[in-house]
Amino acid sequence: MKTYDLIIIGGGRAANLANKVAKLGKKVALIEKSSLGGTCANRGCVPSKLLISYADVIRNIEESSRHYIKSNIEKIDKEKIFKENNDFIKKVDEKYMSKLNENVDLYRGLGFFLSNKIIEVNNQKLTASKIIIATGTSPKEVPYKNAWTSDDIFPLKKIPKSIFIVGSGFIACELANALDALGIKIKLLVRNDKLLSNEDEDISKVFKEEFSKKIDIAFNTSIKDAKYENESFNIVLENKNKEISNHTCESLLYAIGRESNAKDLELENTSIQIDDRGFIKRDKFFETNAEDVYVVGDAAGEYMLQHTAAYEMNYLYKLLYEEEKKALKFKYIPHAVFTDPEIASVGMTEREAKEKGINYVVSKTDWLASAKAQGTKLEYPFTKLIINRDNYEILACHMIGPQSSTMIHQVLTVMHIDNDVRHLKEMLYIHPAISESLLPASINAIKKIESFNEKN
Ligand SMILES: Cc1cc2nc3c(=O)[nH]c(=O)nc-3n(C[C@H](O)[C@H](O)[C@H](O)COP(=O)(O)OP(=O)(O)OC[C@H]3O[C@@H](n4cnc5c(N)ncnc54)[C@H](O)[C@@H]3O)c2cc1C
Predict the structure, then answer these.
(1) Residue whose CA is closest, atom 31 of ligand 1?
(2) Distance, C-alpha 278 to centroid of its chain
């Protein structure tokens, strides 16, 4: 049996953690069953956003008539675009390999527990004083043979002419938007009448209106049957009125959520426990029910975002190797949806604020105070601030409009340093940048609080 200072199962974001610990002179075993770099770099955030960058250019050209410019896209070289994307993915593992510290032994294979402290991989037994589980998630299983998940999309194998996409979350919407813009015939199948239902209701309502103008969406519809024959799917759809329709498409993609990879870890050989959804339980210091065995990132099933996974891994390093003894409490967790329209959000939805009985005000303002925003000739973009009426704390900011994912960082900075909406009013903005629209948003929120205080 080989003995290490640390064993990490899962070489996604945790590959960086392995290097960091190895630099301290510790012997680290890193176990990865697939490509280093994990979901984000190989089949998630990065390849999807590279595709979306093309979609953004295409949409701008397609919509240039709004600016009195007549344009025509002659050709979208999908082969080149897909090749470039695949070339990026091909290099991910190599890039991570080249950075591996000499104190890291990489085991390529499926790792699983024989006991709390003994791991087996490729018929070898390993043990360590500390073990970290960073095994992430996988897409939920698809119900029909030859149907894809987002894991099958990347690397992009063939370029279908038509794809039916099942789902209504951010992965389904981002892929629908990108592939539709590239000229692939897309039909999004949504079993109820909502898109992005985790977003604040005001945002998801406007998103639905705008997104439906671009993408062919069948709401309240599900697949009753799907058969793959002669390189295409024959699909039977049923809507809420029990009406049946028959369709054909080349590919069928399911983006209906992700599940824990814990099932492969043979946790029944350990005292590690899982929750009702199959995710590994941990305490506030990321420790599982087995002493010195930790779980981090998506494997813990809490936030499922690359930036939170990375943050948690840096934090675990501090806990284990820098004697930091404080539990990590995220001050705020932002996210974005890179669709057209783009969405960015941080903090609670208004519904959550209501349910929690918080005293809050809502400021909902469009972006038209900024000339640059006016120049986009889009009327829907808006910012919704939810502010604690008792102390001016920013409880949430929800945005929909171009560059929301960039714009929101200004609000995040205030929340990070000294969370008080009055800073957004006091700061000096560049005129007439789109970010300037945060000035009326904050003024409006402050006015609402002051007028409430005057009346009470
Ligand atoms: C299409 C898509 C788009 C996304 N876009 C975004 C985005 O824009 N922004 C964002 O913040 N997040 C996004 N995400 C989510 C993001 O990818 C994850 O939150 C992030 O990858 C989590 O990192 P992780 O290291 O915890 O897990 P992972 O990256 O999933 O890494 C886990 C690793 O463990 C390996 N593994 C699992 N079990 C075993 C085992 N038993 N033995 C050995 N190895 C094992 C896996 O092969 C994998 O490499 C997206 C995800 C998808 C699918």
Answers:
(1) 12
(2) 20
Query: Which secondary-structure segment (H or E) carries 336?
Result: strand 334-337
420 backbone dihedrals φ, ψ, rounded to 5°: -150, 120
Helical spans, DSSP H, in 63-200: 78-99, 150-153, 170-181
Q: Where are the alpha helices (DSSP H) in 100-200?
A: 150-153, 170-181
Tens digits of per-residue pLDDT, 390-418? 999 999 999 999 999 999 999 999 999 99
Cα 120 to middle of ligand 1, angstroms: 22
Is the pLDDT at 295 greater than 90? The verdict is yes
Give residue 43 CA to ligand 1 midpoint distance, Å. Answer: 8
Domains and CATH numbers, the chain: 2-139+259-321 (3.50.50.60), 150-256 (3.50.50.60), 342-455 (3.30.390.30)
Which two structure tokens, joined as six digits, stand for 17? 């953690």
Indicate whether this model's pTM tops 0.90: yes
Q: Which amino acid is at 268?
A: E
Task: Report residues whose beta carbon is within 6 angstroms of any ligand 1 atom.
Answer: 9-14, 31-34, 38-40, 44-45, 48, 110-112, 134-137, 150, 171, 261, 264-265, 297-299, 304-307, 309
